Amino acid sequence: MSALGNLVIIFLSFLGLCFLWTFIKVVHKLWWRPTRMQKLMRSRGIKGPSYRFIHGNTKEILYMKNKAMEKPMSLSHNILPTVQPHIASWVKIYGKNYLQWYGTEAQLVVTEPEMIKEIFNNIHGAFPKFELHPLIKKIIGDGIINSEGEKWTKYRKLSNHAFHGESLKGLSPAMITSVENMLERWKSYEGKEIEVYEEFRLFTSDVILRTAFENNYQKGKNIFETLVRLIVLASDNIYKLRFPGISEFFKTNSQIELDMLDSQVGNNIIEVIKERERKVITGKEDNFGSDFLGLLLKAHHNAADNERISIKTVVGECKTFYSAGQETTNSLLAWVVLLLAIHKDWQEELRNEVLNLFGKQNPNPDNFAKLKKMGMVFNETLRLYPPAISLKRKVEREVRVGKYILPANLNLFLSALPVHHDSKIWGEDVHEFKPERFSQGVVGATNNNPAAFFPFGMGPRNCVGSNFAIVESKIALCMILQRYSFTLSPTYVHMPYHLVTTRPMYGIQVILEPL
């Protein structure tokens, strides 16, 4: 046999070995590992829908979500079967804690409060943050939400400084200005129908721009508009799985657009950063500013290595603040107005509380602790319509939680919605709007069970921006109640759904009446 023939045989043998090795790896990832995990979990008392090759349960979940949204809901607050129909169905079949599959990723869905509390408190140090989905990372960045250890401690310290009480007081004039601008628009809707979800989107965006981009308002507005498109496109693609490796070489039009939008947001933020830095370097400004971006840039230029943050972190934290900060408040305010439009008695009680405290003057955050009834309404709204319906963790090493032994590399899906709508916790009136259940605070409402109510998470990693969202929402609602009463429009169509947060698919229409 010729030397060339031998080379051909060696080459073909090598290709055959490569193919065999690739085939073994693919079978291991797509079949052997998931089926082994499924068998292990069943042996430990945790069941769930069967793993499907490549897709896991994503096709079933997507089908159930689409089916649930074919027809609008009646005006009911029992939103779990519509917003998370797969969880509503599978907890009945498999129990409060069950195993589901996102592609080849095993997810333990946890809806049992005691287990949720143990996982959030993380006293074993075995439950670090779950690695964000690449599409979610494009929306909210790679900052405090996805960090661990010393890195998280540094980011948390910075965020605590940005959102503590005194800092929030300094932001209230910007918030009041944004409300005034919104209410000026509302004058043309007096005695007419107005769609408030979009109004609150514009308002919350304006607040973020004023508190994070005080000197670069227009550039910030461009970033927001790009983020809105990025959020919609990412959410449309979150359950569309592709064969591993293919997306690295062959990208769909949606993937190409997502990468382009993500790059635009990052580049625009970096342009604003460079502009701030130039002004300080040339002496036009004494410092980087007192807004959120200014605090981040101060940390970026910190002389101490252990306190300094990277430019990538600055961009990530900006994304987190823009996306999470705006979406959370927008969702909360919209559902509060819906519930008060339906329950006029509570609307009047809150109006009287505001007028007795502030009269017709702009609200002062120093007195917000006295708005007891407003606090009750906010908590009941967050119970019925939590902005963030699920949080994720992962199991770093084998650990016992409750009666279960959880293996390493298992992902945990902690769902607030089924807990907030559990009649065994909240009573038979669980789907009714009853703010009085919070008359003795959250402790009284939950019988001292903190894991029964966690709209902003719990434990050491609870949402650092929750105070910002509540203060912003209280300022807006106070100023609205001082000027207007509102009733639900007959054109309103009730269809809550999840897109980053819990939101109304067709908006929220109310009839606005000046006082």
Task: Give a description of the structure.
The chain has helices at residues 3-43, 58-68, 80-83, 85-94, 113-121, 134-140, 149-163, 165-186, 196-212, 217-237, 246-249, 253-281, 292-300, 311-342, 344-358, 372-384, 416-420, 423-426, 441-445, 466-483; strands at 97-102, 105-110, 193-195, 390-394, 399-401, 404-406, 411-415, 484-488, 496-499, 501-504, 509-514. The protein is an alpha+beta fold. It has a 4-stranded mixed β-sheet. Strand 9 and strand 10 (501-504) form a beta hairpin. The chain starts with a helix and ends with a strand.
Percent range for β-strand residues: 5-15%
Mean pLDDT: 83
How many separate domains make up the residues?
1
Report the total helices. Answer: 20
Alpha-beta content class = alpha+beta
How many strands, which pairing sense, and closed or not: the largest β-sheet? 4 strands, mixed
CATH homologous superfamily classification: Cytochrome P450
Helix fraction by DSSP (H/I, runs of at least 4):
55-70%
CATH topology: Cytochrome p450
Which overall shape is indicated by the principal axes computed on the Cα atoms? globular
- N- and C-termini, Cα separation: 100 Å
The total of beta strands comes to: 11
CATH architecture: Orthogonal Bundle
Q: pLDDT below 50 for ≥5 consecutive residues: which ranges?
A: none
